[in-house]
Specification:
Length: 113
């Protein structure tokens, strides 16, 4: 059976953040759960927010947590990051989460293949 690709399927966009093991796991988790998640869930147009604790590394170094946020398309994702809540969420990460863990983020355009 061969899968068919819908030529008009809508592209999705994803923002992925990978957090290294925090210097103080309890303080990091408390701030992340109590402050950062409620902020991030206010992103305009956000369709899905998922995370995975202690993912298994297959290649490269392990990390503490991977977070994935999904939007309908790249325009919606970019608008959300530029929004007031986007600026507040980024500031919270840089000011508060960065004191416990290094992290990196990337934007992905998801195409059906």
């Amino acid at each position: 059976m061969t899968a068919t690709v819908d030529p008009v399927a809508k592209q999705r966009a994803r923002f992925v953040v990978m957090y290294d093991v925090p210097s103080d796991v309890d303080a990091f988790e408390r701030h992340y759960n109590d402050i950062h998640i409620p902020l991030a869930k206010q992103y305009p147009g956000l369709r899905r927010f998922t995370r995975s604790h202690e993912p298994t590394a297959v290649i490269g170094e392990p990390c503490h947590m991977v977070v994935m946020l999904d939007w309908d398309d790249m325009d919606a994702l970019e608008a959300a990051l530029r929004s007031e809540i986007g600026r507040r969420t980024a500031e919270d990460a840089a000011t508060n989460l960065a004191r416990y863990a290094t992290f990196r983020g990337m934007i992905l355009q998801l195409d059906e293949v």
